[in-house]
Amino acid sequence: MARRKSARSGKARSEPVQSDTENIVQNGSARTNIDLMNPEPEGGQFLRFSSFPYDIRAMIWEEYLSNHRILHIAIENLEAPARNKHQRKKAKKATNKTSSIQSPYRVFLDERYALSKLFHVCSESRDAAKRFYRVQYLCTYRWGYKTQEGTLYFRPEFDTVQSCVTADLFDFASNLFRLDSRYVGLQSLAVPKQCRVHTLMEMEDRKREVMKEVLLRLQSVSFLHMQEKPRAPPRPLRTLAYVHSMQQAANRNGTGTNNNDQQPRRPKPRTGWEPDCTGPISTCIPSFERLSADPRKLGNDHTRPYFSFQNPVHIALSWFRLLESLEIFYEHGPNYRFMLSYETTGRNIATRDQAVSWVQGQRKDFRARAASEGLEQGEWVSPAMGFWLYPIECVGSLVNEDGGLKTAKEVFTGAQLKDNMSKCVPELCLSRLT
């Protein structure tokens, strides 16, 4: 028995002692080698909270709710020909059930977490949330194939609406203004697609006046570019990282020049999207925190914005054409920006564990491809879940020498747009993961 114990102790001495970090990597889901930029959720309990005076508790509730949010809203016209009679009747009945405003459309809130947690804590927190979100509008919660009738709780000073620009959107925004006791209404709008200017200009005069009133109240307009990952992307043979690394090797050997002008060749664009966890990744959490500048070191090819299928500048051009057609001129115009993010399948990241797991999967795939294709792997930067906000000035002037708007062919595209935006340091908006 003594001999056995001695052997076991000798074996223990011969084995290297694992660090705490290695144990976490092997056994835990929160692998510490991935340091997310997103703030950690504030945990813990404060048992003496109920002993505070009501006014102090109300201030704490309000402070907890004072977060910026981006709300994905879809507006479906009830008279659309694609809907049958039964669907229109059912939708109209649900829409008019508790709303005092009769609307010819149905509002969908496409969020996985449509309500703040304070609605489910206690009656006092629920009352505080209802006071904070002073604009309340009947809507339908929708996530995937699941729908549920509910209420849109809206705070104009903190909430950004992401929605396509249609006539119904302006009517909806006008209703938000009428329901707001402070008469603020919609202040921030994120535009995901180009405006159909001709369709909007065909509206009757009354609706056009409503549209002008809504536009004049806006304080912030963002033009969205969401880089989506294809469901079944073909395996690219040459990636930007591969071309860039091969070009560097060729330059070191003195062979990386064109035959005509003896200038280094420009790296070719990617043939497919390869998420490298440097650009911010979209999540299903509507609330976020804003940093005035992305503090991470951004300088290699994997950190530059990449546009694969749609130029966000074209969305901005269509917006300004709409303003031009309506003859809208601002004394102090809205703050225009470009919102960039990378889409995961179904925006399914909600927690830090899910974010870490997703990043690890991407890095594992990249390492495998790096080994098989000879890619140079640079230093990983801290991944971020959220989106970038670029100032509109980073894409150059949208006005030509005659003072008119440029055409789609005259603005920066492709490599020019990418290089211009790479020189700007964007704001970084971080999702408040749970």
Automatic annotation (TrEMBL):
Residues 1-11 have a biased composition (Basic residues). It comes from Fusarium longipes. Pfam families: 2EXR. Residues 1-37, 250-276 are annotated as: Disordered. Residues 46-161 form the 2EXR domain. It comes from the Eukaryota. This is 2EXR domain-containing protein. Transmembrane segments: none annotated. Residues 250-260 have a biased composition (Low complexity). Residues 16-32 have a biased composition (Polar residues). PANTHER family: 2EXR DOMAIN-CONTAINING PROTEIN.
